[in-house]
Design goal:
Elements (H helix, E strand, L loop, with lengths): L12 H5 L1 H10 L1 H4 L13 E5 L10 H9 L3 E4 L12 H18 L2 E6 L1 H12 L4 E7 L13 H8 L6 H11 L6 E6 L16 E5 L10 H11 L3
Parallel strand pairs: 1-2, 1-3, 3-4, 4-5, 5-6
Helix pairs in contact: 6-8
Length: about 230
């Protein structure tokens, strides 16, 4: 079982306080960032699935989904609506795996792209059904360390009803952090205000550093380009 270092601290209060202004700045600059995306080559048509973060619905990934579809990828939503946290066990996880089975049967293994908690769920599914997963791309997902290296762990416990010190939750976290049996890429930011950047990196796979807040990270042009580069093998 993976033992997480407790020495990694959450982001500073200054970075935490800057989350909303930085996210708003990202939204306001989207029109300008669109020019950076012109000329990206077409993809190979593979199926991909987008997994939202905690409290996010499927529309949170709409800009990235449209970007990928415009380049020929089969970009699927995860089909479970808003992410309320308890998605890694039980009937909802089975529904996600069933959806992957349906896609993979027709089009082959699926590339999973998840932001924050969605990326952690993507890693768990890849461990449990690697036959259905081509690769995993996580975006600001704090899978590689203690949940207490975040500024939102108390909210997570309150919102989901799960406690980080529960043995079952700890075992699941260790499973998520373990090296994946499929290729993996972690997109992360040292200046993330909600989760420590160090626990979003993948020491057993590829890591791509960006400079971003946590909120709104999935609509950034540099994230689009990073995802496209991974899919294209760059």
């Amino acid at each position: 079982m993976t033992i997480f270092a407790e020495s990694i601290r959450p982001p500073s209060k200054l970075l935490w306080a800057a989350e909303l202004p930085r996210a708003a700045w990202t939204v306001m600059n989207r029109p300008r960032h669109k020019s950076l995306l012109r000329g990206e080559p077409a993809g190979d048509g593979r199926p991909v699935m987008l997994l939202p973060g905690l409290m996010q619905g499927e529309r949170a990934f709409f800009p990235l989904q449209r970007f990928l579809r415009d380049r020929g990828y089969q970009a699927h939503s995860w089909g479970l609506g808003r992410n309320f946290g308890a998605r890694t066990t039980g009937a909802e996880a089975e529904q996600l795996i069933e959806r992957l089975e349906t896609i993979a049967t027709t089009d082959g293994p699926v590339t999973l792209i998840g932001v924050s908690l969605g990326g952690m769920i993507a890693r768990l599914v890849a461990h449990r059904r690697p036959d259905l997963v081509r690769e995993v791309i996580t975006i600001s997902s704090p899978f590689a360390g203690s949940g207490k290296a975040t500024n939102v762990w108390r909210f997570f416990e309150w919102f989901t009803g799960e406690r980080l010190d529960d043995p079952a939750v700890a075992a699941r976290s260790a499973e998520i952090a373990a090296p994946l049996p499929v290729p993996s890429t972690a997109i992360w930011s040292q200046s993330d205000g909600l989760v420590a950047g160090e626990i979003c990196r993948d020491s057993h796979g590829r890591s791509i550093e960006i400079s971003s807040s946590h909120l709104g990270v999935q609509i950034r042009a540099d994230v689009f380009l990073a995802v496209a580069g991974v899919l294209e093998g760059r």
